[in-house]
Design goal:
By secondary structure, this protein is an alpha/beta fold. Helix content is about 45%, strand content about 15%. The protein has one domain: Aldolase class I (TIM Barrel, Alpha-Beta Barrel), CATH 3.20.20.
Length: about 400
């Protein structure tokens, strides 16, 4: 009885302090790490937390919820990393292993353009040529020395031969990698996933995945800022991290953004267990967990940041996610599947529009680069005319962002 009474008083104290912190955040107070960790406690009521996050989102973004109409290009699924939750990667010779040819890319890009897509999203395995002689030989036959070189050439091909604007997610990038890609990418991205090095220990989700080490990931994201690249990053929840790890990861991203101002979007992505992976029986995070993390992310970053939760990974929960402080649904393709999450089909744009309208909000399209980043310092000169033309067409169709 005494223990139960003390626990009850402790929970009441946490709820009282959390209420103070939420009010302070609404008044412009920048949360500290310890304060954000407290808000991640299950003892903190989720309803008021989510409501405050939604209020901040509407304060910064108005009633607009955005999405990008894209085509997904899995340029190669060869990868030197063995993340224990990934069903995308393949070894050379393994069933399903494939590297797209330029002709294959152009064929998909042409169909995507005819369907009104504006974004060409390139996702691919990490540096397979460093692990597999077969990958090096394949690149040699194509005329390139590295996967990044090939990606840069493909991005240039798409940007010059089609109206699509490339956005590349090739994994861990060095400064020279990004310099090579920058002229033909309107934006780029790499998930931090988690700042805790514990996840890279033997048996962890990032065991045998050298490109997922958090130190190099943070360095890469910071280098993107030094190069004025409009960048997307975020966290992956439910892979074995703690609530404190999530907060630390979000704060690492906030600090990098405060240095360079280049993070155009933060994604809070929930782990989904997949067959054929080592983590196929690992427990997935629940909706309350996802909503809490998303709401805390909004309170950490404030009203100005664009925050996304991928809708295809949480079907049937769109209203709850809108109420947690997001302002973006990410890329949605009317043509290609989500090759990273093949079990999770994209929602219909019409369906998202209806749910969004039901919350008193307005769904509208954006580009792979957010409108506030369409500035000379962020958009390479090679893509500026096309980006501005698309932006004007979207404005005519949907009206101005407000």
């Amino acid at each position: 009885m005494i223990t139960t009474h003390l626990e009850s008083r402790h929970s009441e104290a946490i709820r009282g302090r959390a209420s103070e912190l939420v009010e302070a955040a609404l008044e412009g107070h920048a949360l500290t790490r310890e304060e954000a960790r407290l808000l991640m406690s299950p003892a903190v009521e989720l309803g008021p937390l989510a409501e405050a996050a939604s209020t901040l989102a509407r304060r910064g973004k108005g009633t607009v919820i955005t999405f990008s109409k894209k085509a997904f290009f899995p340029l190669t699924n060869l990868c030197r990393d063995y993340c224990r939750y990934c069903t995308f990667r393949r070894d050379p010779g393994e069933e399903g292993a494939h590297t797209m040819t330029p002709d294959e890319v152009l064929e998909v890009a042409g169909r995507a353009a005819r369907m009104g897509c504006k974004e060409a999203l390139f996702s691919l395995g990490d540096k397979p040529e460093l692990a597999f002689p077969e990958a090096r030989e394949q690149l040699r036959r194509l005329g390139y020395g590295s996967t990044i070189e090939y990606l840069a050439a493909i991005c240039r091909l798409v940007a010059t031969e089609t109206p699509l604007l490339p956005h590349s997610n090739p994994g861990l990038m060095s400064r020279s990698d990004m310099e090579l890609l920058r002229p033909w990418n309107v934006s780029m991205g790499a998930m931090l996933e988690c700042s805790s090095p514990r996840l890279s220990l033997a048996g962890g989700p990032h065991d045998r995945a050298p490109d997922k080490e958090p130190g190099p990931r943070r360095t890469s994201i910071r280098e993107a800022g030094r190069l004025n690249i409009a960048f997307t990053s975020g966290i992956l929840i439910g892979i074995g991290e703690t609530p404190a790890d999530r907060v630390d990861s979000l704060f690492d991203l906030r600090e990098i953004h405060q240095e360079h101002g280049h993070l155009q979007e933060i994604i809070v992505q929930n782990f989904r267990a997949k067959p054929r992976t080592a983590m196929r029986k690992h427990r997935e995070p629940g909706l309350d967990d996802l909503v809490r993390t998303t709401a805390v992310a909004r309170l950490i970053f404030g009203p100005a940041m664009n925050i996304q939760v991928p809708p295809n990974l949480s079907p049937g929960t769109y209203g709850s996610l809108l109420g947690a402080g997001i302002n973006d649904w990410g890329g949605i393709s009317p043509l290609t599947m989500d090759y990273i999450n093949p079990e999770a089909p994209w929602p219909l744009i019409r369906e998202l529009g209806e749910v969004t309208a039901g919350r008193g909000l307005v769904l509208r399209e954006r580009l792979a680069i957010y409108p506030e980043f369409i500035r000379p310092e962020f958009v390479p000169a090679t893509l500026r005319t096309q980006a501005e033309a698309w932006s004007q067409r979207i404005a005519l169709e949907y009206g101005s962002f407000s």
